[in-house]
Amino acid sequence: MTRCLHIFVIDDNIADLLLVEEVFASFSNQVTVMTYQSGRDALKAMQSPEAVCPDVILLDINMPHMNGFDVLKVLKADERLKLIPVVMLTTSVAPQDVKQAYSLFASSYVVKAADFASFIQQVESFLEFWKVNRLMNWPTPISF
Questions:
Q1: Domain range summary for the chain, segments of one domain joined by +
Q2: pLDDT surpasses 50 at 74
Q3: What pLDDT does residue 57 have?
Q4: According to the CATH classification, is domain 5-135 in 3.40.50.2300?
Q5: Alpha-helical segments (H) within the chain
Q6: pLDDT tens, residue by residue, 16-44
Q7: Which value, in Å, is the radius of gyration of the alpha carbons in the chain?
Q8: Cα–Cα separations (whole angstroms), residue 112 to 25, 61, 124
Q9: What is d(CA 46, CA 9) in angstroms, rounded to the nearest whole number?
Q10: What is the DSSP-derived secondary structure letter of residue 52?
């Protein structure tokens, strides 16, 4: 049996987190999802000694206190966390945000779909991509 894909979703918008949980619930045999309303909380969870790090992180940009770019900088500077793929999942279509995300080594940049049906399609595509990556024997994050 294949291990579930372990996903962290970091977004300050409660409605978006609930939507993500609802969409991923229909794929519960394939994924486990942990949600965080702040980058600080997610980083604290990943940096704890007993942390089980995610296979991939979905990260919003526009958050108070510590925006997604700041979270991404911390992740990529941490030897234990820097190889975790980070997908920016945001409403921003600003070219400078896309450029900054990739300059900070985001793995992908996805603009949040405006409607539920389109968002489900985004999630299905996302899961298919990561299943293929797993079949190609990409390294999996280490549990600490």
A1: 5-135
A2: yes
A3: 95
A4: yes
A5: 14-25, 39-47, 68-77, 95-103, 116-135
A6: 888 888 888 887 888 889 999 999 999 99
A7: 14
A8: 18, 11, 13
A9: 12
A10: B
